[in-house]
Design brief:
Strand content of chain A: under 5%
Oligomer: homotetramer
Helix content of chain A: over 70%
Largest interface: C-D, 55 and 52 residues
Structural class of chain A: mainly alpha
Shape of chain A: elongated
Number of strands of chain A: 0
């Protein structure tokens, strides 16, 4: 559990640390690699490289973004959602609703 | 038609210009916006913002990448594929196979 | 099979009823409509209807299946997962892992 | 090429046979298998089987539907689209637009 028992955060939730706190460095590394991938795709377009080769890289970057999303969601459920369930009541219901909506956005994107 | 005015081209195809030649600036603009989105997501993670807010941005960036892919594919079909069909023979079959595979990667990513 | 009709269940979970127990009729109704959609698509193919019209119906059926999946997942989280978190320990960890894997399969399908 | 040169069909396009004419039996077989999968999922829900097991089958049926769609699209491009490009003019532009829209629906479903 990475969630803070100490300071009750400001912000959209009652915890101070995000679910991905413990894996933050790994997530950042992946995001920076994806940023590089997208910059690489822009360079390919700039150099007028072949459409299909550009598309292959776009598919790869999309998959990498999905992997980040699945990682964040997993951490969110293991930490924030677990904590909200322990808290119970409106906090639990709100977090469940929020997670469901995030999953729906992910499945539909 | 944006295909080869000048040199017969080396590379994976027989045309010198990619299908997206005429919309290159628009594609580049979108890709740079997506690069900024991904950098923004990294910043959110750096600042330990709330998981669900990060996920919302990841979904938005994924959708934006898909829109770029659909745009590139549309241009590819209208230009490169149309030209390959006019050429006929092995060139046509190869370009059809290639397009089908790119679409499958896109649908599955 | 983890669901028991009588006894409080052996199997991968400690509850006798699935998360969708209360919305079972609605889920069944949606699934039967989708079964009808798929049968309708087969009929279109049988009658050699136009490819694009068939594809439109395949996309609609795919979206309807995704909606069922999101509904089931939502119920699963609100009931089975919440209960497993209350139970704690290995049961909680197992259910979280299982839910993450189900979400990943859904996002990638 | 399965497209009819002889009778100029009624219907949304100028060809008499759909792109999947030659692979019709294979497509029908897949669709009937999917219909069976969906009926199986309804039975699982009827029997109140475990949520995650139901979700696994829904993901499998979704993937199978996508495979049908990719197969139909491939045949459509190799036959109907190729023929429309040969015809040229408005017919070509209309078929390209239509294919792009079908691909977009598929990617977003």
């Amino acid at each position: 559990m990475s969630t803070a028992d100490t300071t009750p955060s400001a912000g959209p939730s009652t915890h101070a640390l995000p679910g991905y706190h413990d894996t933050k460095d790994a997530q950042l590394k992946r995001l920076r690699r994806i940023e590089g991938q997208v910059r690489g795709i822009a360079r390919m377009v700039e150099e007028e490289q072949y459409c299909i080769d550009v598309l292959t890289q776009v598919s790869a970057a999309t998959k990498a973004l999905q992997a980040v999303a699945l990682g964040l969601l997993d951490e969110h459920m293991s930490h924030c959602l677990v904590q909200a369930v322990a808290t119970g009541g409106e906090e639990r219901d709100e977090k469940l609703r929020e997670a469901s909506q995030a999953i729906a956005r992910l499945v539909r994107s």
